[in-house]
Design brief:
The protein is of the alpha+beta class. It contains 15 helices and four strands. It is globular, with a radius of gyration of 21 Å. About 5% of the residues have low confidence.
């Protein structure tokens, strides 16, 4: 067994305690890579982001599912900056610039700064002659004056973005990693090797483009990541497809098509899945009634909640609580 498989398995076991709140991954063969990414993020305060230039992630549903939390930066500062349409598209253009930089030069990695002042190291993911994507790790910080100037520039001329709000979010949520880059880079290279090796296996059984030039639509990854994050953060509230599409800067038809393509379910079903997973924690760890749990997790009708739960989980909420409750 090669070294990176052994190390990823080790980190998968060591970081399993972090993943109790993650959903849909219990039977996923790529669970360890999800655990490893969360381990790096939480142990060293590193924000990890996977950019897909080639379309190698969606060729396998389980890999897509495992990497979904890492396809875009969804911290409150980034989400606020990208709430402005122009700023959102500036972020997308930067992905294309990353691709061009690696495509036009033989870089082992480079250090980049986004238009809103966030700094990260970018490591390529290559398979033979193909540039698959990149691993972005941040956020490293410069002097406060330079950071403020970039944030102010990003907010300039926008009717939605306010510098004071943006900078407050930056100070609250953006902190430097607790690891030196020379110690982090070997782990990121390990991750790049793993993803390259995984693609090498998958491409033998999954159809891929034979075009000489291929560039994946990164907007699709951004939309999916933002939509999933919005659903997770607002699952206890009423969520409409229209407001979700507005949040993701796209049409409702495009958003619905992406969800069906990448998750194999429609948006409302996905919302219900998130709510059901949250309700399982309540059933196991609280003494609240079934009706109270239904309302807390976003279901207006407790009877409808019970029907959806039974259909998705295979047993009723009452039976689930009886089997798995942690309280006496």
């Amino acid at each position: 067994m090669s070294a990176f498989w052994i190390i990823l398995h080790y980190y998968g076991i060591m970081s399993a305690e972090y993943e109790r709140k993650e959903i849909f991954l219990m039977s996923n063969p790529y669970q360890n890579i999800t655990n490893y990414l969360h381990f790096l993020s939480r142990r060293y305060n590193v924000k990890i982001n996977i950019k897909d230039f080639f379309g190698f992630i969606p060729i396998n549903k389980e890999l897509d599912e495992a990497l979904r939390p890492f396809l875009a930066h969804t911290n409150p500062f980034c989400m606020y900056i990208k709430s402005e349409t122009q700023s959102y598209h500036t972020c997308l253009r930067m992905i294309r610039k990353m691709y061009s930089k690696f495509e036009n030069g033989d870089y082992e990695y480079f250090f980049g700064v986004c238009h809103a002042g966030l700094m990260e190291y970018v490591i390529p993911i290559r398979y033979e002659q193909d540039l698959l994507g990149s691993i972005n790790a941040g956020f490293f910080q410069s002097d406060p004056e330079t950071t403020q100037a970039r944030i102010r520039s990003a907010c300039l001329g926008s009717r939605l973005l306010q510098f004071e709000t943006a900078y407050r979010l930056y100070e609250q949520y953006i902190t430097a990693p607790d690891i030196a880059i020379e110690d982090l880079l070997p782990q990121l290279n390990l991750l790049a090797e793993y993803l390259s090796h995984t693609y090498g296996i998958l491409c033998k059984t999954h159809p891929t483009s034979t075009n000489i030039f291929r560039y994946h639509n990164s907007n699709e990854d951004m939309i999916l990541s933002h939509a999933v994050k919005y659903i997770q953060q607002n699952s206890s509230q009423r969520i409409t497809v229209n407001e979700l599409a507005d949040f993701c800067h796209c049409s409702t038809s495009y958003l619905s098509r992406i969800f069906k393509k990448r998750t194999s379910v429609n948006i409302n079903t996905y919302i219900n899945k998130v709510r059901i997973e949250l309700s399982k924690n309540h059933l196991m760890n609280s003494t609240n009634s079934i009706a109270e749990i239904a309302i807390t997790t976003g279901f207006d009708d407790p009877n409808y909640y019970s029907r959806v739960f039974t259909k998705m989980i295979g047993i009723s909420p009452t039976e689930f609580r009886r089997r798995f409750k942690t309280f006496t």
